[in-house]
Amino acid sequence: MVKSEITVRKARLDDLHKLTYNDYSFLVDSIAVGPFTNPELTEFQSVQPYTKRYDLEIPSITEYLDKNELALFLAVDSSDTPVGHLAISRFWNGYASVDDMATDVNVRRLGCASKMMEAAVDWAREAGLPGLRVETQHNNAPACRFYQKFGFKLGGYDAHLYDALSSGPAAREMALFWYLHLAG
Fold first, then answer.
1. Which end of the chain is less packed: N or C, by CB atoms within 10 Å?
2. Which domains occur in the chain, in start order?
3. What's the pLDDT score for residue 59?
4. Helices 141-150 and 112-126 sit at what angle, rounded to 10 degrees?
5. Residue 149: CB partners within 8 Å, gap ≥ 6?
């Protein structure tokens, strides 16, 4: 598959079950290192590699269909098979919030994330919003690098957001909050 074969469109109800066939896991082999007080991350530290898995919950993204304040975009291949998704909403602070974004492991680095994020930027502009926000974890180094390359600036962090999740790696994750300010 090549970059030009990936397009982005709004999701339909009959698309959602197809998203469950995708593998959204990623290898954690490095973490972003603080202090998280600058708008850019400059240091990553190697860690013992492990695979992090995300299970897509269809009921949670169904609410993004056919609403003005929410949208669900799909990256699709040349046969219109979904290979990624991005859920976006209007956040309480007036920004567009990228609530969920993932691409299948087999199509990464083919422009899916960039094309979905471009659709999210267009959605935010059409809604008259000043920018976008997204939250990721410090152990998702590829996502951190992507957001930074796309133009997002690190706005802050929460070292305790995931404390109550479990005793595994997720309990030690730090939330990083990224912002992309749109020109007026």
1. C
2. 3-181 (3.40.630.30)
3. 83
4. 50
5. none
